[in-house]
Amino acid sequence: MKVAVVILAVVAIIAAGVAGFAIWKMDSGVKMPDVTGQELADAKAEVSGAGLAYTVERTYSDATEEGMVSRQTPAAGEKIAQGSMVTLWVSEGPEQVAVPDVYGKTVAEADTALSAEGLNIKHAAGSSPDVKKGQVYKELPASGTEVPRGSVITVYYSHTSPTVAVPALTGLTEAQAVNRLRGAGLSLGTVGTQTSSTAVTGTVISQSLPATERVARGTKVSVVLASGPPEVAVPDVLNMPYKHAQNKLTSMGFQVRTSWAPGTGMEPGAVVKVNPTVGTPVPEGSIIHITVEESGSGPYL
Fold it and tell me: Residue 148: which CATH number?
C-alpha cells in the first residue's frame, strides 16, 4: 500500500514538472514579427534578431514589388518557440506571359485570347488593307513579347473594309490585265474596244479606274482594248488625173503606189483602176494602189 502511494506521488510530481516546463517554454517563446512588405535582407535580419531561423521561397505576386516579402508563415504576432523555423515568400513580381498572336481575329476573339493569359485590353480603331472590317491587324506589344501578367495590350482593329491600289493596265493584253488585277485583289469587269492609230491592237488603251486609286478588295475594273486603226472608205478617184488622185489619197492619210498601163481606152494620165476598190473600208494609213493610162498625150499628163 505504501509502495502504491509512493508511485502515485512520483507520477504526480513528474506530470507537474512537464506541465510547468511547457508553460515555461510557452512563456519563453517569441512573437513572430511582421516582415511582409520588407526587402528580403531586412526581413532576414529582423527574423534572425528575434531568435528565429528562416527559409526563403520564391513566388510571383501581382501585389508585391519584386524582391519584397509577400507573405510569411507563421503569421505576424503568433507566439512560437525561440529557434523555430519560419518561411518567407519573396516576390518575383508579376508572372511573365507571352502576348498571344491575335492577328486576323475578331475583337471578341482577341479579347478572349488575351484575357485567358491574364492580360488587360485596350481597343483602338484604325484601317488596314490586309484584313476585313472588324478584324485585328496589329497589337502592341507585339505577339510573342514577354510581359508581366496584368499588362495592357493595345488591340488595333480595322473599322473599314480593306482597300487595295488599282494597278496600271495601259499597254497590257487582256490576259496580262486579268493577271495583274488578280494579283492586286481585283477582278476584270467589262471589256470594250476602240480604234486607235497609236496603240498595238489588242492592248489596253483605257481603264475605268485610274491607277493608284484605292478601292475595296474585289472591285471590278473595266478596260477598253485597241481594235486597230480607224477604217476609212477608199474614195472614188477613177478617171481623175493621177496627180489629183494622189493628192486626195495622201490628204486622207493613205499611202499611194502608182503603176502605169497602156491601151486602156481612157484619157492618158487618168486613173483607170484602184485597189482596194472604191468604197472599201480600210485601216487609216493603208496603201492604195492606182493604175494610170500611160499611152498618148493629153491634159492629164
Answer: 3.30.10.20
Would 8 be classed as within a structural domain?
Answer: yes
Judge whether 298 lies within some domain: no
Contact (Cβ atoms closer than 8 angstroms) between residue 85 and residue 73:
no
Whole-prediction pTM value?
Answer: 0.44
**What's the CA gap between 50 and 106, in Å, rounded?**
58
| Span 70-116, pLDDT tens digits | 999 999 999 999 999 999 999 998 889 999 999 999 999 999 999 99
- The residue with cell 484619157 is 267
Domain that holds residue 184: 163-226
What is the CB-side half-sphere exposure of residue 201 using CA atoms within 13 A?
A: 5
Q: How many CA atoms lie within 13 Å of 119's alpha carbon, on the beta-carbon side?
A: 30
Same domain, 119 and 188: no
User: Which secondary structure element, helix H or strand E, spans residue 153, and what is its range?
Assistant: strand 152-158
Helices (H), 28-161: 40-49, 107-116
Nearest-angstrom CA–CA distance, 118 and 105 = 18
Contact criterion met (CB below 8 Å) for 69 and 89: yes
